[in-house]
Amino acid sequence: MGSLDGKVAFITGAGSGIGRGVSERLAKEGATICIADMDLEGGERTADLVRQLGAKALVVKCNVASDQQLKEAADQCVKEFGRLDIAVANAGIARGGHILELSLKDWQDQLDVNLTGVFLTVQATARKMVECSNGGRITCIASLAAENTGSGIWAYSVTKAGVRMMVRGLAQELGEHGITVNAIGPGVIVTPLAAGIAGEDGGAIRSNLERRTPVGRAGQPSDIAGLVNYMSGPDGEFMTGSYVIMDGGLRDARGPVSEPSEEIVQESMRIMESNTQRREKMQSMLDDR
Fold first, then answer.
1. What is the mean pLDDT of residues 236-244?
2. Which residue range is the domain that position 67 belongs to?
């Protein structure tokens, strides 16, 4: 028996990256998975992985920046499975830029997805949890960037710092319903979103990151998934309103950063080209609300 047998988990941004890793881990523990994502192709790939583990899966199209889409997705989840016990507000985007150049749209899109999207996810799923009267566990994915920031990434940091503070208030309001709310601050995790700083397998950027990280490696979605599983399971019952950093010690690392070698420059250019293609694809989905 798994620790989450009989539970139903609603996970946003589950079509790739951390969301996919969380889906697989919770499925291994016996949970049924509702995959909420704008990218239905990615969602179906995650669903296939979940079903291969012997768990049930449902894919629902959901743009977390849309109140209506989130409500419909949560409704569909409960209609299909009869309950909603676990929610993971994971969907996120990153739009960098200097204050003199950052567009209002890039600023607003980040707020809409990373901050308002978390609010809407928690609201829609918590309402269902209250209706079902089974309590619940909610985990919001913030970032190490909620604490550390800098030129070009501060706008992203603002949204994640907001999530960090949000869960503290949400925990106070939802505790009476048997619902816990926590946040995780991942460091550099090997996902499409973090490709620019995680680098390629065996590449110079990854090597530099691993050298600077005390545990000696980059994070994997499975690392974050393990912590989500803890927060969602019986051992996490007394934990709420918390923000936990999981970064392999990178926050306090003081190792030297390598000078941009030709190898790093070439790798960065390849990643930038791939990221541009991915962003164009995802932007059209994001604008469809």
1. 98
2. 8-192+216-252
